[in-house]
Write a structure and sequence with these properties.
alpha+beta, 14-stranded antiparallel β-sheet, 278 residues
């Protein structure tokens, strides 16, 4: 009898661990996918907002990009970003951000959707693939944000906000398995080398912390290992994003590339080299 009880408990623990791993792995695969729709127009989304994120239709930015991997090897390239028209997604009108990355001899184009409100800038997250990939009986256990709140205004000392999160509620177990937090740190003078010459811009410095909790002990599926990835962004008044630097896993997600755990020790730097604000 005891053997049967132990076997039953072991089955329950193993099943819970399998469900937990399955949901985590599938959900992280869809966290920061670019959203796409066929419904477009040429008018930018309207609404008040901070001048730290000018969002006029036709505004464009170009950045130099450098990636250093865990072995110290470097690759260089550029990223061009343009705001072009709008897309209706899940009944909400978003602006299009078209990113072209020329890196390591390879060119890739992605389309992200964002909306600027009175106190924040949010990028849409397409969770339709997640609902299709996870069986209905498991999807009910997942709670996740429907947008990335990249910026929250006004900037105040040590102000933090939730950028994104994924929660899991399973058999009385409540976990926040993915959490991205933004924190305004201070104003900072940032030197830049633009196509028009060298300059220095006063910018708000923001730290992003991406916390991932994963089960790593096969004997205890509820024992989670916490890993934190960090990156920084600098955003200037009347200009927008002028620099990003930090862990590639999070910066790839913020620039339309999705989460990439191939080399979580990589460091990416993106610095503004030209811009046109409309």
């Amino acid at each position: 009898m005891k053997k049967n009880i132990l076997f039953t408990n072991l089955q329950a623990v193993t099943a819970k661990r399998s469900i937990l791993l399955f949901i985590i792995m599938i959900s992280t695969a869809f966290l920061f996918n670019a959203c796409k729709s066929n419904s477009t127009s040429s008018n930018p989304a309207s609404g008040p907002g901070s001048s730290y994120f000018p969002n006029g239709n036709g505004s464009s930015y170009k950045y130099s990009v450098t990636k250093t991997d865990s072995s110290g090897n470097q690759q260089s390239g550029t990223r061009s970003s343009t705001y072009s028209g709008t897309t209706t997604f899940n009944g909400t009108v978003y602006q299009n951000e078209i990113d072209t990355l020329d890196f390591g001899g390879v060119s890739a184009v992605t389309n992200s959707l964002f909306i600027k409100s009175g106190d924040s800038v949010m990028f849409a997250v397409d969770t339709s693939g997640l609902s299709e990939a996870i069986p209905a009986q498991y999807f009910q256990y997942i709670t996740l944000s429907t947008a990335l709140k990249v910026f929250q205004f006004p900037f105040e000392a040590n102000k933090s906000w939730q950028v994104f999160n994924v929660g899991l509620n399973l058999s009385g177990l409540s976990l926040q398995i993915v959490s991205v937090t933004g924190t305004y740190l201070d104003m900072e003078q940032v030197p830049l080398t633009l196509n028009t010459g060298s300059t220095t811009m006063n910018a708000a410095k923001i730290r992003y912390d991406f916390v991932l909790k994963m089960p790593t002990n096969p004997n205890n599926p509820l024992e989670l290992t916490t890993t934190t990835y960090s990156a920084f962004a600098w955003i200037a008044d009347n200009v927008g994003m002028i620099k990003m630097q930090g862990n590639g896993a999070i910066l790839d997600a913020f620039t339309g590339g999705g989460i990439n755990f191939a080399d979580t020790t990589s460091v990416i730097t993106q610095s503004l080299i030209s811009y046109s604000v409309k």
